[in-house]
Specification:
With 484 residues, the chain is mainly α. It has helices spanning 3-23, 25-33, 39-59, 69-93, 100-111, 127-155, 178-203, 207-218, 236-248, 253-262, 271-295, 299-314, 329-341, 354-372, 389-415, 420-431, 453-467, 471-474; strands at residues 381-382, 385-386. Helix 3 packs antiparallel against helix 4 and helix 7 runs antiparallel to helix 9 (236-248).
Length: 484
Amino acid sequence: MNVNLFRSAVHVAAICGLYLSTAMVIPALIDLHFGHRDWTVFVFSGLMTGGLSLGAALATSGSPPPFNKRFGFILVNILWLSFSLIGALPIYLSSLNLSFAQALFEAVSAITTTGGTVITGLDRAPPGILLWRSMLCWFGGIGIVALGLFILPFLHVGGIAFFKMESSDTNDRPFAKLGSFIRAFIAIYILLTVVCTVAYDLAGMTHFDALNHAMSTVATAGFSTHDASFAYFDSTAMLWISSIFLTLCSLPFSVLILFAVRGRLDTLRDPQIIVFLGYLTAFSLAVAAYHHVRNAVPFGDALTHAVFNMASILSTGGFASEDYTLWGPFVVVIAFFATFIGGCSGSTAGGIKAYRLIILFNMFRTGLRRLIYPNGVFSIRYGNIIVDDDMQRAVMLYLVAFLALWVAGSLVLAALGYDVVTSISAVATSLANVGPGIGPTIGPAGNFSTLSAPALHMLSLLMLLGRVEILTVLVLAMPTFWRN
């Protein structure tokens, strides 16, 4: 293995770490403004991580290698690991008195936009920590979209390549320069955050709550500033605002950009958008009807809470308006299976994602046709695109790895003494980056604070695995990867 690859990957991670360390100034100023002593925690953490990042950047400077697959795999893993460690430091040193395992879990949950938390008493937590969690979610959302649109398609382990999503006359690229797309993406991401903040503010949130919830909503992360999440506000308007933005941010950002910048209405016909909106609508209506009939809840209220909670689960947002596990067993089963599905590729949502479900369904249908016509020639399509063998292989590898990790992780938690529901739900929600699970311990009305350090470390690893599409990490375990 060429050490130049490690040096360059560490250099990039150090530069990004330097920016993240500088961002700690913002929560420090917030704590200083509110008179909370934790502002010193952010100053110390920023200086320490910033100094280490600067030293690492200077020590590893040099000519970068050409971007190849091996370098891409190393870079992705080092970036997400370093961001998690830097993000965990101020949380660990804060007045919350969390263990290192809890602080790391909180940071990983934020960076991966999972939304599971170990903090109790959020209503009394330092404002700087609350803002820092939301900022980590927001930064993680940017990284997730970049990962899904550019890096993973290049590595052939996931994502739908941006150039494949529209037939452009500019050498198969929607913009003449990549920088034009990046600027458009950042602008739309910021615009969505601002509009969401204003909407929450007008609906009755405080300015601080509105900003934190908007950053978490756009990143489909699910972190709230209150233990009761959206139940704290008891506002129908806020639930619909959140549902709209969670759904919007579960759509491919490349499609949103082409629609917003170029007015390309045809991009909204992307198959994964149709499928995602289809099962979101079906699940919401089914849950609303069941909740209305079984619990005698007015259908309007039932529909509001059903849409919000289903949008939260399917977008892997992780917010909650009520403990929906009390609505009945049918809702619990739907919520459990919805945990796995997720949103669209190229969005901030996690899960298996709609495009994989489409490809899997078409592979299944084509397999049945070949049983009937053994000599027939059939192609597997995603819309108008023929899915090549590499993409089919990547989808199957991902699904097998996801199921294998789910089973293995569930067995580990069960061996640690946790009940069946908690074990299988915690692993599923971590791999899918959803946040809350089901059951009394980690369900919508609970959190992960009671889990042991070994359990939290394993779930932190699973969240990272799920966010970087699993195969990006597992490939490092192959001896052939390290051979020259």
